[in-house]
Design a protein that fits this description.
- The structure is a homodimer of 328-residue chains.
- Chain A is of the alpha/beta class and 328 residues long.
- Chain A is built from eleven helices and 14 strands.
- In chain A, helix 1 links the parallel strand 1 and strand 2.
- At the A-B interface, helix 1, helix 3, helix 4, strand 13 and helix 10 of A face helix 1, helix 3, helix 4, strand 13 and helix 10 of B.
Chain lengths: 328, 328
C-alpha cells in the first residue's frame, strides 16, 4: 500500500515534488490539483489526473498527504490552514518572520481535524535550520554563519525583471570566498552584509532601453541590491537561454564554537549543499517530510510540525531496525 | 530546577562531558562515579563529589541522567543495560556491528524501568549517522561517502603501542585529498580503502629497539594498516609531548545523488567537522542527548533510543516557540 500524494500547484516546485515521488517506491502520485483550467495543465507522470483545486473538497479517501506548492506571500497563508482541515499537508513556507503566525493557524486547523501539517520544509528553511539547531545544541558557545550560493535567487531575479526596459533577468547570489575562508578557519569574523555575499545579474534589455539607467536602478535598489557589491552583465536572449536556464543553488551553514575548561579547543561544524536544481532538491526534502507526516499521523499524532519536531527515522522508508543496522 | 547529570567513568570522555555540562546553564554535574578508588580521582568542577560506582544503587532521587563513559568493548555492553534499569542513561557505544544487540538489551531494561536509554551518541556514530540518514531520505538515488580525519585514531594508536619496542605512539588518519575532490565534484568514484585514507604514525621507540622491524610490523598489521599507505616517523618523547598531545579529529559525510525526470541534476550534500578535541566534542553531543533523554522521559516515553529517534527540538534548551522564531 503506497502513500498517496496529491500536489496542489504545478509550477517548478510542484514538478520537483512529482519527480521526487517517482524516486520513492513507497509513494505514488495520486493527482495534481490546480487553480488554472485543468485542461491547460500537462503533467509528466503518465496516467496522473489533473483536477481543479475545488475537487479537493471531496477526495479525503484518495489522498494521504497533500503537498501545497504555492507561494509564501499570499498562497500558503490561506491554503495550508484550509487544507490542513482535510488532509495531512506539507508546505515550504519560507517567510521566516511570519512562521510563528503560520504555525499557529495550521496547528489549530490540523489539531481540530486530527491531521498533521508540516510547514517550512526544504533547505532554508529546512535542512539549514536543522543544522543550525543541531550545531547550537552541541556548541552552546559559538557563532552561526549562513552563506547562500552560488545560485539563482528567484526573488532577486523577479525584482530586476520589474525594472522598466528589462525583458528578462537572472540574479546569482555568490558567497565571498575570503569571508568563507575566514569563517572556516575558526577566526570568528564579524561580517557585514556586503562582506558576505556579492550579487551578479544577467539582463536582457528591451531594444533601445537605457542600459546605464537599468544598471543604476539595479545597483541602488533598496533591500535587494543597495547593501551589496553588484555586477550587471547585459546579454542576448540566446545567451540567457543557453547559459542561464537552470536553477542551481546551494550554500552552507557553519557554526564555530569552543569547548574545554579554558575554552581552549575550537570546533567547526559545516553543512553544505551544491544543488543543480533548487526546486527538485526542495521537492525531495518535501517528499521525505510527506512520508513523515503520513507515518506520524498513522501513529495518532496531529497538529502543526516543523522539521525540528520530526524524529529523523520518520523521514525514511526503512524500518528502525534497518536504520540502526546500516546507517548508524 | 537544573537537570542533574551523573558521570560514570572519568577518563577523556568523562572529562569532555563534564566540560560540556559546565557550558549548559540548564544542567549541573551532580556527581562523578568511578570503579577506581574515589579518593584517587580528582575532578575539575569545584564541589562535585566523587563516589564509588556502587553508590549508584541508591542515588535514584539525586540523578536525572547518568552518562556512561566506559569503553564499547567490555564496559558498555554490561553497564548501559544495568543502569538503564535505574536511571535515564546515555552512552557512546560505537561498535557498529553490535549496535542491534546492545539496543535490544538496553531497550528491555529501560522499558521495564520506565526510563530512557540513548545509545551511540557522539559524532560517528551520532552526527555522522544522522547526516547519512537525512541525506539518504532526501536523495534516494545516490552514493554515500564517509571520510575520517585528519585526526588521531585511538584504536590505531593503541595497536602500535602494543608492538614490542614501542614506548609511545600516535596514529593520524588522513583523507586522500584527490579522493575527497573527486567525491565533492560529483564524479561518483568507486574508491578502495587505500584510495580513501592514508595513515601516519609517530612512534617513540625504546632504547636499542629495531626500528626497521617496528616499521615493518606497523605497515603489515592486518585490519589496522595492511590495506593502507602508511608513513612511520620515529620521534623523541619530547617531540611526542610537544607536537602530539592533543586529540584532534574530524571528517566528513558526503552523499551525492541525482534528481529529475531524466536524473539529469546532480546534488552534493556534505557535513563536515573539524575538531580540536574529539572527547570534548563527543561529550558535547552527549550533553545535548542527556537533555533529550530527560525531557522525553518527563513526557512519559521510555525504552532505548538512538539519535534517529530524537525529534531535534528535544536536544535544545530553548522552547519550541523560540526555536521556530529564531532558528527556522
Amino acid at each position: 500500500m503506497k502513500i498517496r500524494i496529491g500536489i496542489l500547484g504545478y509550477g517548478n516546485l510542484g514538478k520537483g515534488v512529482e519527480s521526487a515521488v517517482a524516486q520513492n517506491p513507497d509513494m505514488e502520485l495520486a493527482a495534481v490539483f490546480t487553480r488554472r483550467d485543468p485542461g491547460s495543465v500537462q503533467v509528466r507522470t503518465q496516467g496522473v489526473r489533473v483536477l481543479s483545486a475545488d475537487a479537493l473538497k471531496e477526495m479525503k479517501d484518495q489522498i494521504d498527504v497533500l503537498v501545497i506548492c504555492g507561494g509564501s506571500a499570499t498562497d500558503l497563508p490561506v491554503q495550508t490552514p484550509e487544507y490542513a482541515a482535510l488532509y495531512n499537508v506539507v508546505d515550504s513556507f519560507d517567510t521566516h518572520a511570519r512562521i510563528p503566525e503560520h504555525f499557529a493557524k495550521v496547528d489549530a486547523a490540523a489539531k481540530a481535524a486530527g491531521r498533521i501539517g508540516i510547514i517550512s520544509c526544504g533547505w532554508d528553511p529546512g535542512m539549514f535550520s536543522l543544522n543550525r539547531l543541531y550545531a547550537n545544541c552541541i556548541l552552546p558557545e559559538g557563532t552561526d554563519y549562513t552563506f547562500w550560493g552560488k545560485g539563482v535567487s528567484q526573488g532577486h531575479s523577479d525584482a530586476v525583471r520589474r525594472i522598466e526596459g528589462v525583458k528578462d533577468a537572472r540574479q546569482y547570489t555568490i558567497p565571498v570566498p575570503e569571508a568563507l575562508e575566514a569563517v572556516r578557519s575558526g577566526k570568528n569574523p564579524e561580517l557585514t552584509t556586503r562582506q558576505k555575499h556579492t550579487r551578479e545579474c544577467f539582463v536582457v534589455a528591451k531594444e533601445g532601453a537605457d542600459l546605464a539607467r537599468i544598471e543604476n536602478e539595479i545597483k541602488t535598489m533598496p533591500n535587494y541590491f543597495a547593501d551589496y557589491d553588484t555586477t550587471v552583465h547585459f546579454i542576448t536572449e540566446e545567451e540567457m537561454k543557453r547559459d542561464h536556464s537552470g536553477l542551481p543553488h546551494g550554500g552552507c551553514v557553519i557554526r564555530t564554537g569552543v569547548t574545554g575548561p579554558e575554552k581552549e579547543h575550537k570546533h567547526v561544524i559545516e553543512y553544505s549543499l551544491k544543488l543543480d536544481s533548487n526546486p527538485e532538491f526542495t521537492g525531495s526534502v518535501i517528499a521525505a517530510c510527506a512520508r513523515a507526516a503520513y507515518r506520524m499521523n498513522q501513529e495518532g499524532m496531529s497538529g502543526c510540525k516543523t522539521m525540528f519536531d520530526i524524529a529523523p527515522a520518520y523521514l525514511s522508508p526503512k524500518s528502525a531496525e534497518e536504520l540502526r543496522a546500516h546507517l548508524l
